[in-house]
Design a protein that fits this description.
Low-confidence stretches: 1-45
Strand content: 15-25%
Shape: elongated
CATH topology of the largest domain: Immunoglobulin-like
CATH class of the largest domain: Mainly Beta
Radius of gyration: 22 Å
Strand order of the largest sheet: 1-4-5-8
Distance between the termini: 11 Å
Order of helices and strands: EHHHHHHEEHHHHHEEEEEEHE
Structural class: alpha+beta
Mean pLDDT: 85
Number of strands: 10
């Protein structure tokens, strides 16, 4: 295989992709009994803003993360119809996971929603217990956090990130068997500090993504072959949110200077459909799997370009003539030529 044909890694890694969660079509929870309000945490009432006094470095990392923008991000507001779909509030402004229960779907909080998935959402304890949790106990700290092993468990992340089966996908992968969990990819340890990052990169972080999916193209006897393989993600590609899609396109490559650029032609889409999209199937690519596609030779086409795009909204402006360069993010391209 020539250098132009080599695999270039890309895509979405870890065991909990994407960090902005909550679909339009996730199952509804039971409403609270009449006259009862959603539970309120003493820690949440104290507020995550106070955490920065001792944890300024962590707060700065979090402030640029998708978790911090979970409630205020314009794209989230648009997709949720400005949270008219109130099911989205559960995961975009949640009560503490430890309050609603590890492995249970979270409930929305009534205060400080603009903070999104804040410190208290992950570290806060129920009102009766008070205080918070951390990776280790520190009685000298003003917040006196308790050590709870569940803080690092996939089930903790799954309170929001398992609405569409991401944790189950992880369990079925080699990552689950090896004990490599969400935080190994999405909260890596900073060698300089020895602490886990709270920037929590996901599908929007191309540098992280590039260890996950491989794209390859080659020339065979009577056709071009395109291969996409999930080589590094601990879950399906894409995962978590049904609005996300990975699309493979190809087009003839101009071999003469000044020749017009050909239009993209669609090869394959990887996406889990919304529940109302009857007739569509889940085409996301499971961890460790690969798919091959044959593109027949055409007269006069001696070279092709293949590209994989990542799209965070599900629909093309013109489905009959999609424009991935304008509407999606180019994550990989490769050229193949006849000898």
């Amino acid at each position: 295989m020539s250098a132009s044909q080599r695999t270039i890694a890309l895509a979405v890694a870890g065991a909990a992709t994407l960090l902005l969660v909550g679909s339009f079509f996730i199952p509804e929870r039971d409403a609270a009994p009449a006259g009862e309000d959603a539970p309120t945490s003493a820690a949440n009432a104290h507020g995550s803003r106070a955490c920065a006094a001792c944890h300024a470095d962590v707060q700065a990392e979090w402030a640029g993360s998708p978790h911090a923008l979970a409630f205020t991000d314009p794209e989230v507001r648009r997709l949720s119809n400005d949270f008219a779909n109130q099911d989205c509030l559960d995961c975009h402004a949640p009560l503490p996971v430890f309050e609603t229960g590890i492995g249970q779907r979270v409930l929305p909080r009534e205060t400080d929603r603009e903070l999104g998935v804040d410190c208290i959402a992950c570290h806060g304890l129920p009102a009766a217990a008070g205080g918070g949790v951390a990776a280790k106990r520190d009685g000298a700290a003003p917040c006196a956090p308790r050590m709870r092993a569940e803080l690092s468990a996939p089930e903790h992340c799954g309170a929001c990130h398992d609405q569409h089966g991401t944790v189950g996908q992880w369990r079925a992968s080699r990552f689950g068997a090896e004990g490599k969990t969400c935080i190994d990819c999405h909260m890596p340890v900073d060698p300089a500090t020895g602490k886990r990052s709270h920037a929590m990169p996901g599908g929007g972080a191309l540098a992280l993504v590039q260890s996950a999916i491989a794209l390859e193209a080659r020339r065979d006897a009577d056709h071009w072959t395109v291969v996409v393989a999930n080589v590094g993600a601990g879950h399906n590609f894409p995962t978590d949110e049904r609005s996300r899609a990975g699309d493979v396109f190809w087009r003839p490559l101009a071999t003469e200077a000044g020749a017009p650029v050909a239009a993209w032609r669609h090869v394959h889409r990887m996406r889990a459909p919304y529940r109302h999209e009857t007739g569509l199937t889940d085409t996301t690519l499971p961890a460790g799997e690969r798919r091959e596609f044959a593109i027949p030779f055409e007269p006069g086409v001696d070279a092709i370009e293949v590209a994989l795009f990542y799209k965070r909204t599900p629909y093309w402006l013109d489905p009959a003539a999609p424009d991935p360069d304008a509407e999606a993010r180019l994550v990989h391209r490769v050229e193949v030529r006849k000898p």
